[in-house]
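hiii so um. not sure if this is the right channel but i have a protein structure encoded as tokens and i wanna go backwards to a sequence. like what aa goes where. can anyone help
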């Protein structure tokens, strides 16, 4: 018995969702003599704007061309969930169009994890590099986040508009170019996102340094690395940093900093001690 092909999996998936969808859910009145479970093929075809023959071929696992627009139409007609829509595109061997879910919604368990990573700095960012959640260690490292409005609590905005970042981040120029390259690669996936457009416009007005780097069109893939900081209170701290994807929301990532050496761990301890002293004072 031969292996099941991708087209056969696609055909079976479409058939199962067609048969599971009640006619009433798409505005079709069920007649007294109707025996078909779910929708008929011709009904799916009509609602999706394709020919009955073409859709029938698709459910027969024929090797026919399937466009992204047709897949989107089928997903709407069959009332697919977000997960089912992604599965449909995967079976059709077509890239899934990126959708940006609401950024400000961070899973409470993820927020709890960020807090639990203390004394290691950690935060959650989205595709626009907005900082959505962070722990006290990251607040102490960067400083001033608590008092900022949401739109200014952004990694690029902080890096390019706060003069203190140029002394905090060792080799600021190299770091700035890397973060712009990573941001440009990420932003290219969401060309219609108004938040990304607004951020770029604001940075163009506020930072000549950003304009100079952005105009070079750098593209940078993310790679775990060692970030070097010179903190005014804790001194030199080298931190290994990595980024972890949030599976339930592909626009979000958890960023974690870990001490590169025992000496750097002591530096994080000095940050925490200073924060406790400030709170006590």
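sure thing!! here u go:
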């Amino acid at each position: 018995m031969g292996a099941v092909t991708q087209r056969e999996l696609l055909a079976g998936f479409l058939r199962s969702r067609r048969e599971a969808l009640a006619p009433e859910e798409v505005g079709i009145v069920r007649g007294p003599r109707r025996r078909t479970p779910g929708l008929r093929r011709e009904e799916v075809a009509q609602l999706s704007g394709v020919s009955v023959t073409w859709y029938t071929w698709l459910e027969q696992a024929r090797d026919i061309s399937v466009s992204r627009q047709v897949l989107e139409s089928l997903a709407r007609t069959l009332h697919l969930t977000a997960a089912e829509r992604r599965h449909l595109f995967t079976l059709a061997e077509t890239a899934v169009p990126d959708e940006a879910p609401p950024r400000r919604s961070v899973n409470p368990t993820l927020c709890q994890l960020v807090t639990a990573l203390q004394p290691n700095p950690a935060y959650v960012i989205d595709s626009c590099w907005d900082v959505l959640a962070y722990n006290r260690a990251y607040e102490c490292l960067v400083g001033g986040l608590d008092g900022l409005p949401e739109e200014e609590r952004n990694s690029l905005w902080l890096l390019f508009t706060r003069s203190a970042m140029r002394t905090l981040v060792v080799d600021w120029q190299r770091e700035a170019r890397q973060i712009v390259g990573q941001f440009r690669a990420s932003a290219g996936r969401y060309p219609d996102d108004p938040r990304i457009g607004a951020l770029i416009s604001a940075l163009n007005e506020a930072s000549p340094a950003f304009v100079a780097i952005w105009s070079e069109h750098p593209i940078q893939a993310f790679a775990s690395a060692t970030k070097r900081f010179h903190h005014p209170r804790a001194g030199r701290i080298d931190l290994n940093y990595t980024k972890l994807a949030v599976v339930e929301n592909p626009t979000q990532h958890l960023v974690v900093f870990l001490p590169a050496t025992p000496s750097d761990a002591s530096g994080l301890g000095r940050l925490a001690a200073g924060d406790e002293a400030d709170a006590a004072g």
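oh and The chain has two domains: 6-91, 108-280.
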